[in-house]
UniProtKB/TrEMBL annotation:
Residues reported to bind substrate: R92, N124, P125, A126, D127, D152, S153, A154, R155, T234
Known pathway: Fermentation; pyruvate fermentation to lactate; (S)-lactate from pyruvate: step 1/1
Species the sequence originates in: Dorea amylophila
CDD domains: HicDH_like
Protein name listed in UniProt: L-lactate dehydrogenase
Ligand binding (NAD(+)): V17, D38, K43, Y69, T105, I122, S123, N124, T147
Enzyme class: oxidoreductase
Amino acid sequence: MKAIKNGKIVIIGAGHVGSHCGLSLMMQGLATEIVYIDIDKNKAAMQALDLDDMASNLDRDFTVRAGDYSDCADAHIVVMAAGKSRLPGQTRLDMFDDSIKMMNTIVGPLKESGFHGILISISNPADIIADFLRKRLGLPRNQVFSTGTSLDSARLRRMLSEITGVSRHSIQAYCMGEHGDSQFIPVSHIQIGGIPVKEYLSIHPEYRDKMDFDKISAEDKVCGFHIVEGKGCTEFGIGAVLSNITRAVMHDEKRILPVSVLLEGEYGEQGIPAGVPCVIGKNGVEEILEISLTEKEKEQLHNSCNVIRGFVEKADQM
C-alpha cells in the first residue's frame, strides 16, 4: 500500500461543483497536486487543463491533471463531487436513487485502489451518501464524512450579518441535522461578538423584529433552491466550504466545523449520520462536540435524524 502523499487531492466529478472545489483549493494553496476523475474523461481532462492555465498566473506551482482511480491510492484527500445537478424544484432527497446508483459504480474502483486517506463527500443527499460510502469502503467514521450543514451555517451567518450589520466573521452560529429540509438552528448557541444572541438583542432591541428565527430558518432552507432556479446550480459556496474543511485537515487546525459524521451515541442517536459541530484536524473528524441543546432543539435534532434514518435504511438495502 502506498504512503499518503500530502498535498495530493483527487476530485471525483468534474462538473460545476468539482471544478469550483479545484479552483478554491488552488486559490488558497491547499494542494500541490489535483487529479480529476470523471466518467466523461475528456471533460475531466479539459477541466484540468483550464485550471492548469490559471495556475500559470498564480504565485505557486501546482500539478492539475486528469487521472483514474489508481491515483486515489496515495491521495491525502478524495473529494466526492459526482452526481447530477439538482433540478429546479427538487429537494436533495429527491436525488437519492440516482446518486446511489452512481455511487455503486464508483465505490468498487475506489476501494480497489487501496485508498486509505480522508474522504470528504459533497454529493447529495449529503448525509446519506457519505454514510453509504463509509460503509462500502470499510473506513472509520473519522475518515469519511460530508460537508453536512457547513454551507447552511455559512448562509445563516450571512443572514445574521445582514440583519445586524456585524461582520459575519464575528458571528458564531450553526445549522445542525440533515443537509436538507429538516435542518434546524440551535438558537441557544448563536453568539455575536462572543455575546449570546438573546443578550445581544437586549443591547440592540432594534433588531428584535428582524431576528425571527423561524423565518430565518425557512429562508436558509430554500436558499439553495433559489440559486438553482436562478442559475441552474450551486457551486461557489460549496467550493469555499470544501476548502475550509481541507485547510483544517492539511494544516491540522483543530477547527470546529459542522460536518455530517456517524453518530454512535452522541446526542442520543445511534448509527445515524448528521451535521453536528466537530473538531477537524489531520485525522479528519477528531472529536464530535456534544453541545447542550434545549428540549425543543433536542426534538428538532431527533426529528431530523429520523428523516435521515429512513433513507439510510433504504440505502443499506441497495
